[in-house]
Structures are given as structure tokens and as C-alpha cells.
Amino acid sequence: MPRGCQSCSNVLYFENRSCEQCGHTLAYLPETGTLSALEPAGGDTWTPLAVPDRPSRFCANAGYEACNWLVPPGSDQEFCLACRHNGTIPNASDPPQLLAWQQIEVAKHRLFYQLLRWDLPLKTRAEDPEHGLLFDFLSDPPETQGPKVLTGHDDGLVTIALVEADDVEREKRRKSMGEPYRTLIGHFRHEVGHHYWDVIVRDRGKLDACRAVFGDDREDYAEALKRHHANGAPADWQERYVSAYATTHAWEDFAETWAHYLHIVDTLEMASAFGLQVRPCVKASAAMSATIDFDPYTAETIEPIMAAWFPFVFAMNGVNRAMGNRDLYPFVLAPPVIAKLSFIHDLIRRRL
Predict the structure, then answer these.
(1) What share of the chain has pLDDT > 70, as a percent?
(2) Residue 35 three-state SS
(3) Widest distance between CA atoms in the chain
(4) What is the DSSP string of 236-269?
């Protein structure tokens, strides 16, 4: 995902709002998938140097430093393709809430980068009042006024607890729930997986095929959740599931696998953009070497993705351990899990 500044060739990152070398204002153009340096074009309009024939203006949320995307040229929309899916946002006049919202938006925009790259269905609540994708970012009420906000999904409405943007609180929750991994982008990718189960599995006649891989979603969800919290995951869960939480119910297995597929593809794209190669200086099998020089978003099958992922993540886990950090990817992908990832791949690539 790194790009070069069109003015000075400095390396840029997806979240950058200005080039640190030449000072140009930057923006992302979702219709062309381009991060571009800008030149003022009069009023609130900017000319992207990458595509000078597409002058446009910033999303309204750029005023809060919560977005660096442009609204498509000619659009009368106030918000960009990602922010028009926002429902309830935090109180931007409160500095802690504003900071949390800015961090949440970084994760959300990375999610939308992926959804747009695959051209997945993206209807707003205005376009589809019953099932359009909508995000509420909610803060906990005072303890005497109600329960804490729970991150979750309900018919296209994704709720993200604002407190998840607090690194300390999120780490407390990760430890208390026995999770090896918990991030904002992980929440977004998981919860949107539930939405796409509705949209491209249930509503497109893929239920039988999905049940053959993930199990029967008609199992009582409330009872399954109660059982999971009481008993935990089966002892052998790693042989069949990507995470302990995936064992809860077929819906959670699908959403967890969906999230991991998004993790893997986006991480490999970043590795490819940096031209990374893995060549262990030991007598290892060829399976431990990889040159990541392809676009995983366009891979025909799951095989090249997995062939690159295993050597790459083994190396990255080793680098993290050298810094005293937890593994970048602390999960085991057994053959049945890879089969589930393959199902998600084929579903997204419209091969099912």
C-alpha cells in the first residue's frame, strides 16, 4: 500500500495527510485507488497530481482529521465513499473522543480500501434502509445509566465501542478474554464478515455450500454463545478453527475466517509493495522461502497466497520476537482452516 509522492517521489503511507519531504497535501481517491499529492484548484477544490483531470474536494470529516479521502468528482455528497456509511460518531468537541474517533477511522478506511478493491456490495442505509452497511461508534454511558457498549453486528449495523481505541483498555480486554490478538482493524474485519454473510451468502443462495464448510448456522446462537462462555473452546480447536472464538457458532467461524483472510491478503499486499523476500540462511526446504511479488487481491486461488504467507509470517514473527513483542500473527492454519480460507477467497472472487 505504500506509494510515492507525485511531486518528490518520497514514500507515502495510506494514512498520510501531507508529504514529509515536499509538504504537499495528500489525499486518497477511492475511485482510482490512488494516494495523490494535491495542488489547490480554487475554493475547496484540489487537483490530484496523479490524475489532474479529476479535481475534487475533501470529505467533510477531513476537517476533524478523521479522513484523508476525496469525494468523487461531480458528486454532491458531503462525505467520501467510506464516511457516508457512518451513523453515530463521537463528540468531536471532546478531545479524548475526537482522538479515539480518528484512530477508529484509520482502521475503518483500511477496511474500505479492501472492500472497494474487491468491488464488494456497499450500500448505505439510505440506499438500503433494512440492510445497508452502517457504523455506530459509541462511548460507554456512566456506570449508573446503563451497560457498557458491546462491539457487534445486527442486520448491517456495526457497533464499535469507542473504548476499543484505548490501547490500555483494549489490552485489558484481550488478556481477560484470553485472546492472542485484538485490534481495531480486527474488529472491523470481523464484524463486516457478519454483514457479508448476510449479503453474499444468505441473500445469494450460498447457504448450502457455506454450511458444508462452516457448519449449520441454524443452531441456536444464544445457546451456543452461552455454552462457549461456560465451557470454552474444545481442546483440539486448532485442528479445525482459526481461533478459539470461531468454535462458538457457524456464524462466528465464518466471520473469524473472513477477518483472517482480509488480514492475510492486505498484509501480503504490503509485503509485495516493499518487494520483500524470505530466504532463510539455513538448510530449509523450499517451502520456507518466498518472493512476494504478486498482488494477492487478484490471485486466482488460495494456493499462492498461502505459499507466500507461511514463510513471510514465520519471518515476521521472528522479527517481532527479536524486539520482545508478541508474534505478528499468533495463529496456526491447519488444513481444514485453509479450506475455509479458500471458501472465503472463492466467495469474494465470485468463483462460487
Answers:
(1) 98
(2) strand
(3) 63
(4) TGGGT-SSSGGGS-HHHHHHHHHHHHHHHHHHHH
Nearest to 130 by CA among 193, 203, 188: 203
Q: How many angstroms separate the CA atoms of 104 and 102, rounded?
A: 5
All three cell numbers of 79: 462525505
| Res 225 pLDDT > 70 | yes
Is the separation of the CB atoms in 125 and 200 below 8 Å? no
Task: Please provide the DSSP assignment of 131-190 as one string.
Answer: T--EEEEEPPPPGGG-PPP--EEETTEEEEEGGGG-HHHHHHHHHHTT-S---HHHHHHH
Residues 6+ apart with CB under 8 A from 155: 130, 131, 198
* Prediction pTM value: 0.96
Question: How far apart (Å, rounded) are the C-alpha atoms in residues 92 and 167?
Answer: 19
Q: Which of 195, 150, 164, 182 has its CA nearest to residue 97?
A: 164
Is residue 277 classed as helix, strand or coil in its secondary structure?
strand
- The mean predicted confidence, pLDDT, of the chain is 95
Residue 252's pLDDT is 98
